[in-house]
Design a protein that fits this description.
seven-stranded mixed sheet, 16% helix, OB fold (Dihydrolipoamide Acetyltransferase, E2P), alpha+beta
């Protein structure tokens, strides 16, 4: 179980307190701080972002610069902060040409005159008995609490002697919350920010008639400055947010626009605000400049939904069962409100609803998803589930078949799905755009001549609009050194840079696309490229069109359909394994040169590919009497570079052969080695120094065929 950190969405203009700002901020900054030297996890980050959003506290360098949270702040600087807090900025500007009435006025910075005049006239600052203000002195904890107490009208409740009177009062009304107060010690800028932030939430005021503190209906921020309230978020988008105000803040009910720029802290997206109890801050235009989640009243728990427990009647998330469901619980699927209240407000009703309504395309119930259904629940302070947010991929791992760049649609499982501005797109887990998706799709198809893996979440079974699209093109490549089982799952063991890597294969994607692994033809040797799914499991075995190139092989057979068109060609590779290839277009055997294959020497052929599909096959001729490979016109036309006959092996390694003084690399697609002396296919490892061979080169000038003529 994880308690929510305070979440802040702070929105500001670029106006500065102490200068101008030159840093342009993005519209929404997720999990970032308003200041360069404040980390989002710092205890004062929330206060700094809120006060920056309200243009109360922006530091010497402005938004995006340094605010020096551990440095002190002068008395004149804090006077400016308090005047902005109470909404008297314009009054301060009108008084900025008048010298303040303190004996040390010549020590007060001219920019601060208006602020000091306002604060003095309102009794927020009183100065010292000698008539001085001491503007450049660092403000102390006690002085901050005294000035803020006067600003929010609780100061007359202070009793006792200075400075303990204001320390006690400040702690009592909440001004000192989350700050360790030492009365006469200078306050840091971070501590001042926290105490100023607390001022908006003071819910008491001095009643002159009763001569005591009384409860406000709301708080200082809601009644006096009218820029603060508490509410539950009911709707949220990138342009506006809607609230159900809590008791005492009823006049703030409704929808509000966001201000110009936003910071989001503690969550990954705006939709995480839904149904949470929050503190809201407004600017003078009634635009939302900050939203703070109440971390004390709500808790979130996230994890995979345990389908086995659901079958047993247990609603379990992250290993813990939740029986207590709030009467007004709300259920969302892929961020769309689907159900609330009586139909889902018990554990049994909720489980029944999930079984009936959370179902993948071509599935019958929640058990049929290929990947885990995840859920995030929100608990109130009684531990009752108040919201359930389900993320379920309707298309849970299919081939991305096509796209329409103009219409911004994708085709999955034959269905055309619309992408719009609200669709969340990721590629291999990273945020992306539709253009990024198109580029990644094209690169993958060019590389492997296969469709990549995609997951799509929509509003429901009848919807053709994507809420979320997750594309996966990440692959892992290595030498296969074995295979086996992990429970019921197939495992391929790869060697990569000297390390063994186990790749668990997922055959649940079988039928979701041509290339996906179906539980057969698990390789035991050779080289493999594996497409990974969102859980890091193998989804497909791939062959890179750009890496394989043209190659030599041993022809086995081809198959045709009822019209005589070739449907597939089976070839034996250098490892002695049969591999089935498609042909690049419709055509009869002669169209691909397949009529030459059966009559070739030992059925050895040179294969020309179009992507991963066969374009042409040329039979290799070898004269057993002359012990020579014939470099005929067809072979040359197909792109084979050259043949060399009667050369003696000087040296042979795993990557090259030296024959007749020439060093030749081996082809990437493997080397067919045929022993004409003993009439059989052999491996490269069987070759010996001083044997005489004839060899043929592929289109890259690498050795793809070796025929042993003498030993």
């Amino acid at each position: 179980m994880k308690t929510l950190k305070k979440l802040v969405v702070a929105v500001t203009t670029a106006t500065m307190i102490f200068g101008t700002v030159g840093t342009a901020l993005a519209a929404v900054n997720i999990d970032k701080s308003a200041f360069a030297d404040v980390d989002v996890d710092d205890e004062y980050a929330t206060a700094f972002n809120v006060l920056a959003g309200l243009e109360i506290y922006q530091g010497n360098e402005g938004i995006g610069g340094n605010v020096r949270p551990d440095s002190t702040i002068t008395r004149e600087e804090f006077a400016a902060v308090v005047v902005r807090l109470i909404g008297k900025e314009s009054t301060a500007r009108s008084l900025n040409t008048y010298v303040p009435n303190f004996t040390d006025a010549n020590s007060i910075s001219s920019w601060a005159w208006g602020y000091v005049n306002v604060a003095s006239s309102l009794g927020i600052i009183n100065g010292y008995p000698d008539g001085s203000f001491r503007p450049q002195n660092p403000v102390t904890h006690a002085e901050v609490l005294a000035m803020l107490s006067r600003a929010v009208n609780v100061d007359k409740a202070a009793t006792g002697v200075w400075p303990l009177n204001y320390v006690v009062l400040g702690s009592s009304v909440g001004l000192a919350k989350n700050v360790d107060i030492v009365a006469n010690v200078p306050a840091t800028r971070g501590e001042v920010a926290i105490m100023t932030y607390n001022a908006f939430k003071v819910d008491e005021e001095w009643d002159a008639d009763k001569e005591k503190l009384v409860d406000r209906e709301g708080t200082y921020g809601s009644e006096e400055t009218e820029n603060y309230f508490e509410a539950v978020v009911t709707e949220v988008s990138s342009s506006e947010i809607k609230f159900d105000a809590k008791p005492g803040f009823d006049e703030f009910d409704g929808a509000y626009d966001w201000a110009e720029t936003a910071w989001i802290m503690g969550v990954n997206k705006l939709s995480d605000l839904l149904d949470l109890e929050v503190e809201v801050f407004l600017n003078d235009d009634d635009e939302v400049v900050a939203v703070v989640v109440d971390e004390e009243d709500t808790t979130t728990v996230s994890g995979a939904l345990d389908a086995d427990d659901l079958e047993e009647g247990k609603f379990t998330v992250d290993g813990k069962r939740y029986r207590d469901i709030d009467a007004d619980v709300i259920v969302y699927v892929n961020d769309v409100l689907k159900e609330a209240g009586a139909n889902v407000n018990t554990e049994a009703k909720l489980i029944e609803w999930l079984y009936d309504n959370v179902v993948p395309v071509d599935g019958d119930d929640i058990d049929d998803f290929t990947v885990d259904v995840t859920v995030s629940i929100t608990l109130n302070d009684d531990g009752d589930v108040i919201t359930v947010r389900v993320t379920a991929w309707d298309y849970d791992g299919y081939a991305l078949e096509d796209y329409d760049d103009d219409e911004e649609t994708i085709t999955v499982d034959g269905d055309v799905i619309e992408i719009n501005k609200n669709t969340e797109i990721t590629i291999n887990g990273d945020e992306a755009t539709f253009d990024d998706l198109v580029e990644a799709f094209e690169e993958f198809v060019d590389e492997y001549d296969e469709d990549p893996l995609v997951y799509v979440a929509t509003e429901g079974a009848d919807s053709d609009v994507a809420l979320k699209v997750a594309l996966y093109t990440e692959t892992i490549t290595g030498d296969v050194i074995g295979n086996g089982k992990n429970g019921s799952d197939d495992v391929i063991v790869l060697e990569i840079d000297g390390d063994e890597v186990d790749v668990v294969m997922n055959d649940d994607y079988a039928g979701h696309g041509d290339a996906f692994y179906d539980g057969t033809n698990l390789p035991s040797k050779g080289r493999a490229t594996i497409l990974l799914d969102m859980e890091g499991k193998g989804a497909a075995l791939l062959e890179s069109a750009s890496d394989v190139g043209d190659f030599y092989a041993i022809f086995v057979r081809y198959r045709t359909d009822k019209d005589g068109d070739v449907t597939s060609v089976t070839l034996k590779n250098s490892n002695g394994e049969n591999v089935i290839y498609d042909v690049y277009d419709d055509g009869e055997p002669d169209d691909f040169g397949l009529h030459t294959a059966p009559g070739a020497y030992k059925k050895i052929v040179y294969v020309v590919l179009d992507g991963n599909d066969i374009e042409q096959v040329v039979g290799v001729e070898y004269n057993a009497n002359d012990k020579e490979i014939t470099n005929d016109a067809d072979l040359v036309a197909a792109g084979a570079d050259d043949v060399v006959n009667g050369a003696k092996i000087d040296t042979i390694t795993s990557s090259y052969i030296k024959v007749g003084g020439d060093v030749r690399p081996f082809a990437d697609g493997g080397v067919i080695v045929y022993d004409a002396v003993d009439d059989k296919q052999i491996s490269l490892n069987s070759l010996k120094k001083n044997w005489t061979v004839s060899y043929a080169l592929d289109s890259e000038g690498a050795v793809g065929l070796i025929i042993v003529t003498e030993k």
